[in-house]
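Hey L., structure's done. Input below.
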Amino acid sequence: DDFLYAVPIEALPMEEDLVVVRDRYAIVNEVSFARLIADRGERASGTGFLAVGDVAFDAEPGVAVPGVVSAAVGGDLRSGGALGFAALAETRGETEFAGELFERELEHEPVLLLGGAATKAAFHEAAPGKRYLHIATHGWFAPETIPSTLDARPADSALWSRLSAKDTVTGLAPMTLCGLAFAGANKGRDSLGRVPGILTAEELAGIDLSSCELAVLSACETNVGIRRAGQGVQSLQAALHAAGVRTAITSLWKVDDALTRRLMELFYTYLWVEELPKAEALWKAKCDLRAEGAAVRDWAGWVLSGDPR
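Output:
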């Protein structure tokens, strides 16, 4: 638990210079004992593949999701300013490759949300019932020093003293402090104070993804999350499993756009063409990057949690 999740155990070096832990030992990251003690019968999977990529962060965020109020926490979001997410040039090719491969190998038409169509509302509508999810975008984390939203309290009452910015952030729910950027994320808050371009981990956990066999968050730092006293690391990875996803692939740190595309193309080829188990497919993709000369930082940050099969 906690910071153990931030250590890429399989990439730790062993006695020989070119040998890492995973070259000798399989590493399984179980998010709970639930899968291990559950009925061994196979749980039914959903159908189809949903991929999000080439997100137009400067576009209009589209229609708000009924009944869902986006958390507006932190920095520029708090003040309504622009977040400044940069375009991810490689993600269109990444998602299109995965979609074409899925259609050819599994003979089912994928759903691709690209550009301005990659809205949070569209994701809410399309994600339930899908067997595979692939989201190629920026991860968002609230800064630790956001302005306090509390007005000054009566000076004569210690119980009503104004909280510091640090105390305010620490007291907020961790899963409202991290999320994924969708179309319109750079637009900030709308007229109702919501941020329709950011899908928080809290919102993600509330989507029914019980049919999802595998979800890949091809984004920066999607595994790290926000650390709060007594709650460990609450992250997008944890949100996926809370939503019902059996296997999740997330990252521990900022990842290179082009090398991430290469890794994902290799991964899906091993997964769907060679029909390898998910953990083995990811490791073989990492090994290919290693053989091509990629630095450790470019492959070691990707972690698989949940069912490795």
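The longest strand covers residues 49-55. The radius of gyration is 20 Å.

-- N.
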